[in-house]
Give the backbone structure.
Amino acid sequence: MVGALYFLALLSSTMAWGRAGLWSLDAARNGTGDRCTCDAFLPSSTFPIKDLVVIEQAAVEISHRVELEMGKLEDYETKLTAYAEKIIRLTVEIEKMEKNPDAYNDAHIDEIKVEIKQVEALITELQLSIKGSTTVFTSLRVEITVMVESLDMLEKSYDQNSVLATRREYIKVQLELEECERRHQEIFNPNIGSCSHSGIIKVSKPIVGQLNAQLNSGLKFGGWGKDSKPVPDRESMYWYSGYSSASIIDIRFYTNYKNLILRNHFQHHNLHSSWYGTGNNYIIRDNTMYYQINSPFGLAKLNFTTMKYESRVIPKASNRFSYTNSPNQFFDFAADESGLWVTYATDESSGRLVLAKIDEPSFGIEEEWVTTVYKPGVHNAFMVCGVLYAVRTIDIETEDIFYKFDTKTGKGSYISIPFERFQESYVNLDYNPTDQKLYMYNNGYYVNYHLWFNYTVEATIEATAEPALQLS
């Protein structure tokens, strides 16, 4: 089966400017009855129409480039299907040769070798094409980020209605790019919900949505993202909550990404004063918010379907150990393909990070693991497929996934997977298993990242040796 595994591994290695001012007409005539007057109220500064035109032109150009990439994706999908069929056929032939080598002569073997070289060349060509598309996506994201910053500035300085048409065009372009990237991911990473990999190997460049719903860069605390276990008809829902301090007093819900960008929420829940929370690493799962509370010091959950509130105390959890640069962050909730988790530190663990699996129906702790990493040295953490990943800051632009702990083996190890931040300060970082993305609340901006996993033949065999983790 050596030849068969080789080919499987080969396959797996291969997505009109409006009114200038307000006119007040005065119907009163002067004494002679032959004149009428009016007053013009002009803005205090001239609207930069040229800037808006430049943004509009950029939006049209980006839209055309996205359309070209969509066409390429269709070609990639066709080629990938053809290559897969060739590899499967060659794999069958090699398996036959391994079982009965005497039935084949040198000519047969040479013919197989030629076909192998041809498939290798085809896959190399496809990999280069895919890399080219990924580079284009990155470039388009940078251009869109510049566009949204310009639009935010114009909205703050001038009449928001005057910028609305251009913002709608920008949203259209951004949604087209989101769809193109989604199709790219479906074609080249059709493993959403699967844990048949050996872990994260790469994190994308930051993908910046825009400044928060209140257009306030001072709201540095908070979070945003998607429901990790969405209820029916809310699969596309996004949530957001932002503050100027580490408080949790309300939350907004948006039907989809477009309405998030338009700041058009369909629900805005103000928490009852006795339900207020603190910290930043709260999440939404099954239309329920899981978050930290101070009185009593512990965990809380609020179901937005039933508006039922519950709280739990973890007696050993300490309020002396928080994340680096994140005061009052004593509990960090996370969700992945296998369920709901929370991390904290205890005096018994001497500040080392403790990971606990939560039983969702009872809201109790199923099992605990004590890691070797010191919590105050960690900037944030998240879960993927039952594995804890801890992150720390390298410099003003770079974070590093430096540690992982596998709950299946009970062992931790030090790694290094650096990735870039959009801006220096961030407080919320969580993984979502429904799209395999990281969501970050970065200095008031919505930021997310694509993840790449090591889907090798060996990792697949290892994962399937035990029951695979599936989406709950």
Summary: The chain has two domains: 2-19+46-188, 200-464. The helical segments are 2-12, 49-99, 106-157, 160-188, 257-262, 457-464. The radius of gyration is 27 Å. Residues 106-157 form the longest helix (52 residues).
